[in-house]
Amino acid sequence: MNSLYYQKKLSRNVGDKFFTSLSVFCALIAILPLIFVVTYILIKGGAQITPELFTLEPNPPGDDLDAGGINPALIGTLVITTIASIISIPVGVGGGIYLAEYSNGGPFSKFIRFGVNVLAGVPSIIAGVFIYALIVSTKILFGSMYSGLAGGMALSILMLPTVIKTTDEGLKLVPNELRYASLGIGASMYTTILKITLPTAFRSIATGVVLGIARAAGETAPLIFTALFSYYYIVGFEDLFYEMGSLAVLIYNFALEPYDAQNKLAWAASFILVISILTVNIFSRILAAFTEKTKRV
Amino acid sequence: MEEKLTLFKNRKRFGIEKNIDLIFKNTTLALSSLVAIVLFGIILVVFFQSFESFSRYGLNFLVTSEWNPVKDEYGAFTAIYGTLVTSLLSLLITIPLGVGTAIFITEDFVPKFVREIVGSFVELLAAIPSVVLGLWAIFVMEPFFREFFVFLHKFFGWIPLFSSEPAGRNSLLAIIILVVMLLPIVTSIARDSLNQVPKKLRNASYGIGASRWKTIFSVILPAALSGIMAGVLLALGRAMGETMAVTMIIGNSNAFSWSLLSPGYTISSMLANQFGEADGSQVSSLFYAAFVLMILSLVVNIFAQWLVKKFSLKY
Question: Residue A60 in 3-state DSSP?
Answer without folding.
Answer: coil
